[in-house]
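Lab notebook, bench 4. Still working through the backlog of constructs that have no structural model yet. Next entry is a single chain of 259 residues. Request: give me the structure tokens for it.
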Amino acid sequence: MIEDESLFRNALLTLYLIAPPTLISLRFLQAPYGKHHRAGWGPNLPPPLAWFLMESPTLWLTLLLFPHGHQSSNPKSIILIIPFLFHYFNRTCLYPLRLLNAPSRKTATGFPLSVALMAFVFNLLNSYLQARWVSHYKDYDDDGCCFWWKFFCGLLVFLCGLGINVWSDRELLRLKGEGKGYVVPRGGLFELVTCPNYFGEMVEWLGWAVMTWSWVGLGFFLYTCANLGPRALANHQWYLEKFGEDYPKKRKAVIPYLY
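Model written out:
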């Protein structure tokens, strides 16, 4: 038990420690996939396979760890883990299938294996923390009726973010499938930000942080912002350089009206 607590604390500390260097490095080094793909990052995988492999730990490790927590039979614990698993079922299974069936799949650039491996390692760390907290370390009795207030408020935020994320991803795939190359996305939150898909994911994990009401959930939210914020800024700059005066100047990178 003491060894497990030590592992959990060290893993949580690691989650917080890797956020600042991730933020700083991505401000100067663009993640080399999608529109930023470039040589020098080793062998490539087909994007559907890369997404499936790197996101998969969140499903199998969570499902492996969850039953062994002493709170795993608590209905609150089971209800709480469902949104987390639902997001990663979409990201691990449904999103790769959409990529596989997209008309643009034949012209899609490869996904660097090195980047997929880094994401795989992070997902091992994060899924361990989230699953272990929800099924083992969270004190549901201490929350009392406040648990349901936190859960439903957080769930509302989470579902809003999930809807934004899924719709934006589908819209981007649709535009690529038209065979016109990169075009300026229009409609919905694309009128306000360049990367509503990233914004939606940030909102999701803000909702998760509220639902779990924990340092674990907060750490995941902060890391998501550190990871996706600079990537959104790089995408925003790419669109500005490619489309020049034709790109809406009022659009922000990822947070409407702010950033």
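Notes after review: Strands lie at 44-45, 111-112. The first strand starts at residue 44 and ends at 45. Flag for follow-up if needed.
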